[in-house]
Write a structure and sequence with these properties.
The protein has 266 residues and is mainly beta. The protein has one helix and 17 strands. β16 and β17 form a beta hairpin. The protein starts with a helix and ends with a strand.
Length: 266
């Protein structure tokens, strides 16, 4: 039994190492400001960091996510603001030699009839393909581990006429990796992609004296999606506090919420 477990772990590690050799060189978010009827060009730069040849396929899906950590990938046209039908690749299947780099080009052909300002998006999935070879070896279960990349392609139409609308869904203080952490779920109910930062100002409940200001990392937030923003407040002593939570994006759109917080001693 132990030998079988060790063999299984070895197989998983081998396949994981193989697929981890594919990396994306030019980012996982590609953004464009678009106009009706125009064509825009982009590319996906891929490198095979392994020593063996690797085939890779590219395809499009619709994409959304929620503050509970779930991510949904779906067929095109599932999202009413998809741009997946506008995007065409020069090829959707490539094979890279060991240590080889290449670029796959795509074009975004914007329709003439867009009337609703805001963001449209889909994702390019970059997925290693395992060559299937017939074998006369002993029958058994073949296990593979596939590491896919999802590259967001975000197109903003008349962004000056659209805006994000950030709403606070929940605020919790919980232990995260041993640290007291404010977990702030924020939804974008607007029609424009934005990149907000969550900030919390904490005040003594009795005196009103500010205890400190703490911030999350900046994260992108698509329309009709939500994410949880994590803020380390482990320097705040256990007690009950008043707090002001703010979400501010790169265009300085600001949204605020007053809450009461309890930092527990556990």
């Amino acid at each position: 039994m132990i030998k079988r477990i060790l063999l299984l772990i070895t197989l998983i590690l081998q396949f994981s190492f193989l697929h981890a050799g594919i990396v994306i060189l030019n980012g996982l978010t590609h953004s464009y400001k678009i106009e009706n009827g125009k064509v825009y060009k982009g590319k996906v730069a891929i490198e095979n960091t392994g020593n063996n040849p690797q085939s890779v396929k590219l395809y499009l899906q619709d994409f959304s996510y929620n503050a509970d950590g779930t991510t949904q990938y779906a067929t095109l046209q599932t999202n009413k603001r998809t741009n997946g039908e506008w995007i065409k690749f020069n090829t959707n299947l490539i094979t890279l030699k060991g240590k080889e780099k290449t670029e796959v080009f795509y074009e975004i052909t914007v329709p003439n009839q867009i009337t609703d300002p805001g963001s449209y998006w889909s994702v390019i999935i970059v997925e290693p393909v395992e060559d299937i070879k017939p074998s006369d070896n002993k029958p058994g279960v073949s296990i593979t581990s596939i590491v896919r990349y999802a590259i967001q392609v975000i197109t903003d139409y008349e962004g000056d006429k659209a805006k994000p609308d950030l709403k606070f869904e929940s605020v919790k203080v919980e232990k995260e990796e041993g640290k007291q952490t404010a977990k702030i779920a924020i939804a974008n109910n607007g029609n424009l992609y934005c990149k907000p930062t969550a900030t919390i100002e904490i005040y003594n409940r009795k005196t009103g004296v500010k205890v400190g200001t703490f911030s999350s990392i900046t994260m992108g937030l698509l329309p009709s999606t939500s994410k949880t923003f994590y803020i380390d407040i482990s320097k705040v002593p256990p007690d009950k506090y008043k707090a002001t939570i703010m979400a501010t994006d790169e265009e300085e759109n600001a949204f605020a919420l007053n809450v009461e917080l309890e930092v527990k001693n556990d």
